[in-house]
Specification:
The complex is a heterodimer of chains A (about 130) and B (about 650). Chain A is an alpha/beta fold and about 130 residues long. Chain A is about 45% helix and about 20% strand. In chain B, about 40% of the residues lie in helices and about 25% in strands. The chains are: A alpha/beta (about 130), B alpha+beta (about 650).
Chain lengths: ~130, ~650
């Protein structure tokens, strides 16, 4: 079973992401509306993949990303940045900070599901390899 | 991403709800910015909030493929980004464009919601582009310092450390909850996550508050509090960003959205319970004489307890349906501002009681009527500054929009300190339109009756300006459909006040039950001013209308038996419900009053079964359907002297079938 954390300050987007990934059963979702909440979830549960928005109120997605990457437990977990068009300069920043993949909103549900599935498969492979 | 995505069309309700939140947040922030312009410098917190509102609107609009909304939000976001990054300075003209842009965005979203073609955004977009700079390479200079950091009197600061655990989270105590509670106690200066030596995570909040005692409540939830030496902290970290929610205008909402249908269903269920309770009471009453009185007492006590609990239950559900009337009020500042500007008037809008809560259903229905009353106040009420000065008034007019609740009624008032309604002009216009005009002096209620009659032209300035054509007659009929009343008082040169009274909820209400012949009627208690007993000899006949002496005046009465064609041997004494106030008061005569009950209102939706004067039906528990009288419509019958026994007999028969 995969546990996916969806971080976005928009409840509508969180719901849409959830619906898009629903097909990847067995899967369990965690929701966070703020960066602090995301970190709390990550601290309390084993998460296999994070879908992370960048522009959020209390803590920018990049800061969440940097913080998470400093945790040994999460240094390799796939983090998919899902952000609204217009943050073009942020793609590079995100990749430098350790983002696994970068997608923009609006997104197509199938494309998101396919990407997440591929990332989860890579991660499982890397984990079983003992990397 | 070129194919249409019907997949996301299923999220439109979420989309509209979130749009409403962001648009409301943007409106608040813009008005706050406008008010502070030129005094304290640009408020970075507000700019950041606005930026995020438009950023989110852009993102979610793109997801549902509402391109004009996405593009417009994008323009607004770009402009705010430039302001935030200090590439341009926000001016009054800039705020105008932002406000117009926000309103247009709202129109685009609303058009989409009601399946109308969206208005063009080109003009607004062009105006934004004209004042926003061309995108240049962002220079993230070191000058991104919060601008408004006046040396504040320093309050004690505290470091509050919270270590989340699964146990805490399981009982709802998470970092978000802690932050929210800290925000209620003081100002959060910053909030950062930390990794502790043992690898666990802790959140550190720097809190500024004078109410240190209040923090103690958090200790039991695992928060560790230590004082911070103020000398070491005050004045440091100029870049420290105040997190939103910390005393800013748009606090994050922690609200569960519930489909109104589900609440309706729940209310329906409670309604069924109320009816079952009545049936039980009825059945028990028949048993009473067969039961020893000591046993009976405990039955009685239980029934009373169930009554009380049912009432609590229904009030609880009703409260869920209540939303602050601010949802209507917050739209008004823009409206007044624009209309005042167009007409060269100076107007202050005073909003009172924005927190007053009314049924969600009423909010939706009352938006247009309130809008109309406010527009009227601007267009017809408030005078131009020179006229006001000539009349010895302040050049600036005031419109007061207020709301308050009392008991089961909510009152909405729109008052202005303008010229008042010109009775002679209204009378002349009414005569020109062929409407009957009373010969005597026109008081507030008579004037209102003329203004609200459907023949009275609504094609006036205010309606043209809005392009809506909602006249006073629509205001009145909407309010009456909601079982409410509109009254008006006006004073030449002094101003006009419209008062709308509405029942807080429509589903279950207290009612007085009256008998006419073999029939029983219910009348919502909120509508009844008084119940009086009348002796037949008190009744006088004036122009074929019955009146009785009442409070040093006369009260026209209508006999329900005659109106509905019911056989009834009227006794020497009978009861009259007084409905309406002042000159609009009328008496509804019944044979006698049976009592007071809590009734469940069932609307009569079949147009064939709908009869003027009847607003719905209820079941008192004995299985018989009892009709609920519509006091507003009955009063109109009497006042327009149409209280003849019009073919009501036929209608009556149909309803009984």
């Amino acid at each position: 079973m995969h546990r996916i954390l969806i971080v976005d300050d928009s409840p509508t987007i969180r719901k849409m992401v959830r619906a898009s990934l629903q097909a990847l059963q067995p899967v369990e979702f965690l929701d966070a509306a703020t960066g602090l909440e995301a970190i709390e979830h990550l601290a309390l549960a084993r998460v296999h993949l994070v879908v992370l928005d960048l522009n959020m109120p209390d803590m920018h997605g990049i800061d969440v990303l940097k913080f998470v990457r400093r945790q040994p437990r999460y240094k390799d977990v796939p983090i998919l940045i899902l952000t609204t068009r217009g943050d073009d300069a942020s793609r590079q920043t995100a990749q430098q900070a350790g983002a696994t993949h970068y997608m923009t909103k609006p997104f197509a549900p199938d494309a998101l599901a396919a990407t997440v599935q591929a990332l989860l498969a890579d991660f499982a492979f890397a984990e079983s390899d003992g990397v | 991403m070129s194919e249409p995505e019907p997949f996301f069309q299923g999220f439109l309700d979420d989309y509209f709800a979130e749009c409403d939140e962001h648009l409301a947040g943007a409106t608040r922030a813009l008005l706050a910015l406008e008010a502070s312009l030129g005094t304290t410098g640009t408020d970075r917190v507000l700019i950041d909030e606005l930026f995020r509102d438009f950023h989110s609107l852009k993102g979610i609009s793109a997801m549902v493929e509402l391109r004009p909304a996405e593009q417009l939000a994008h323009h607004l976001e770009d402009y705010l980004g430039a302001i935030r990054d200090r590439k341009v300075t926000l001016t009054a003209a800039g705020i105008d464009v932002l406000i117009d842009g926000t309103q247009r965005l709202e129109q685009v979203v609303n058009a989409y919601r009601s399946h109308q073609p969206p208005p063009s955004i080109d003009d607004v977009a062009a105006r934004i582009e004209a004042i926003a700079p061309r995108p240049v390479k962002p220079d993230a200079g070191p000058d991104r310092v919060a601008e408004r950091r006046a040396p504040e009197p320093s309050l004690p600061r505290w470091r509050c450390t919270f270590v989340p655990t699964r146990e805490l989270l399981a009982r709802g105590v998470g970092v978000d909850n802690i932050r929210k509670r800290l925000t209620e106690i003081g100002t959060i200066i910053d909030a950062v996550p930390h990794v502790r030596p043992d690898g666990t995570i802790a959140f550190q909040f720097t809190l500024e508050t004078a109410a240190a005692d209040a923090i103690d409540a958090l200790l039991s939830d695992g928060v560790v509090v230590e004082p911070i030496d103020s000398t070491a902290v005050v004045g440091d970290a100029p870049g420290a960003v105040r997190p939103p929610g910390a005393g800013s205008t748009a606090a994050p909402t922690h609200i569960v959205r519930v489909d109104l249908m589900r609440l309706d269903q729940l209310m329906q269920n409670v309604g069924d319970l109320v009816i079952s309770r009545s049936r039980l009471t009825e059945a028990l009453t028949r048993l009473e004489r067969h039961v020893p009185s000591s046993e009976w007492r405990s039955v009685q006590e239980n029934i009373v307890a169930i009554d009380r609990q049912l009432r609590t239950l229904r009030e609880g559900i009703m409260r869920i349906r209540l939303v602050p009337i601010g949802e209507i009020f917050r739209r008004m500042p823009f409206v007044v501002r624009d209309l005042a500007r167009e007409s060269g008037k100076k107007i202050t809008l005073d909003l009172q009681g924005q927190g007053t809560e009314i049924d969600k259903y009423l909010i939706e229905r009352m938006l247009d009527p309130v809008l109309h009353l406010v527009r009227n106040a601007v267009s017809h009420g408030i005078e131009t500054p020179d006229v006001r000065i000539a009349n010895g008034k302040r050049p600036e007019g005031t419109i007061t929009l207020s709301a308050f609740t009392s008991g089961e009624t909510v009152t909405i008032e729109v008052a202005d300190d303008g010229r008042g309604v010109d009775a002679a002009a209204v009378a002349a216009r009414a005569r020109a339109a062929g409407l009957p005009v009373p010969a005597d002096t026109l008081d507030g209620s008579a004037l209102l009756a003329l203004l609200c009659s459907s023949g009275f032209s609504t094609n006036d300035e205010a309606d043209r300006a809005s392009g809506r054509g909602v006249g006073m007659s629509v205001v009145k009929s909407t309010v009456e459909q909601l079982s409410g009343t509109v009254t008006m008082t006006t004073e030449p040169g002094g101003g006009t006040r419209f008062t709308v009274e509405l029942p807080l909820t429509l589903a279950i209400t207290d009612a007085l039950i009256g008998r006419v012949g073999a029939e029983v009627f219910a009348l919502p208690q909120g509508a009844v001013q008084e119940v009086i007993e009348v002796t037949s000899s008190d009744v006088r006949l004036v122009e074929r209308n019955e009146i009785i002496p009442y409070r040093r005046g006369a009260l026209p009465i209508v006999r329900l038996a005659r109106l509905f064609g019911i056989d009834s041997a009227v006794g020497e004494r009978f009861h009259v419900f007084v409905v309406g106030r002042g000159a609009a008061a009328v008496g509804l005569a019944v044979d006698r009053i049976i009592g007071q009950r809590e009734i469940v209102v069932r609307a009569i939706n079949d147009p064939l079964a709908r009869v003027d004067g009847i607003s719905g039906a209820t079941d008192l528990g004995d299985g018989r359907v009892v009709l609920i009288l519509d006091p507003g419509a009955l009063a109109t019958f009497v006042r327009t002297r149409e209280a003849r026994a019009v073919g009501a007999v036929g209608d009556w028969g149909r309803l009984q079938a």
